[in-house]
Amino acid sequence: MSEDFNKCCEKSTSYYTIIRILLRELRIERKVHQAQICQLLGITGITGSTWSKVESGEIQLTLEHVLTACFACHVLPSELFQTAQNYQNLLCNHGWYVAAHGSALPKEEDKLSIDANAYYSFIYKNSFKRSWLPCYEVLQTPWPSFNTCAPLDVFRWILDPVWRNQQENSLQNQQEDIF
Questions:
Q1: pTM of the model
Q2: Nearby residues of 10 by Cβ (< 8 Å), 6 or more positions away
Q3: Do 26 and 75 form a contact (C-beta atoms < 8 A)?
Q4: Which tens digits make up the pLDDT trace of 137-149?
Q5: 3-state class (DSSP) for residue 24
Q6: Contact at 8 Å (CB) between 158 and 112?
Q7: What is the pLDDT of residues 5-64, one digit of tens each?
Q8: 105-125 burial: b if 16+ Cβ within 10 Å, else e
Q9: Distance of alpha carbon 50 from its chain centroid, rounded?
Q10: 59 φ, ψ to 5°?
Q11: SS3 content of the chain, % helix, strand, coil (to 5)
Q12: What is the distance between the alpha carbons of residues 71 and 3, in angstroms, rounded to a whole number?
């Protein structure tokens, strides 16, 4: 295999994953509970666990999921897809390969999904507050204004290792101050 192919595979994802991450961020931003989306989908049991599996990539994202989540979050699907396209361009500009057709990548091969799940684990495990300011709305990113690239924290975590290390070090310093 060529070196370019190996590098490409190191940072591979799919359009599905970008959509999943944006839907999760929108749901959080708009304060929509996972159980509400499950109820709209007609999933019995009305717990958030099924939608959580969609958000984490354990269950394949479908068009019905996208449209229902957009409805629940009061978002036009076209706005979601435009934002996803902006993130696809951003990732490609940072050397990522984004599969924009076909089915989603297998979970273990989707680097964006793996890294995003690590980000969410970090913030929830540590009760970490999202800290970047100003706080842009999900659909305003990554191009909020004046050609400034201000991606959502989850994408910043993945694309900017210096920033990620600062966040981890900040938490470590806070924990040391407590003890």
A1: 0.85
A2: 111
A3: yes
A4: 888 878 655 556 6
A5: helix
A6: yes
A7: 445 568 999 999 999 999 999 999 999 999 899 989 887 665 667 888 999 888 888 999
A8: beeeebbbbbbbbebbeebee
A9: 17
A10: -115, 135
A11: 65, 5, 35
A12: 44
Largest interatomic CA distance in the chain: 51
- Report the interhelical angle of 63-72 vs 77-93 (nearest 10°): 110
Contacting residues for 71 by C-beta, under 8 A, at least 6 apart: 40
Among all chains, which residue has been given the structure tokens 């068009």?
63
Q: Are 178 and 113 in contact (CB under 8 A)?
A: no
Q: Among candidates 174, 127, 136, which has minimal Cα distance to 155?
A: 136
Q: Are the C-beta atoms of residues 128 and 175 closer than 8 Å to each other?
A: no
Where does the pLDDT of residue 126 fall: very low under 50, low under 70, confident under 90, or very high at 90 and above? Answer: confident
Cβ atoms of residues 23 and 69 within 8 Å = yes
Cα separation of 160 and 139, whole Å?
A: 20
In 3D space, the residue among 144, 112, 119, 108 whose CA is nearest the CA of residue 19 turns out to be 112
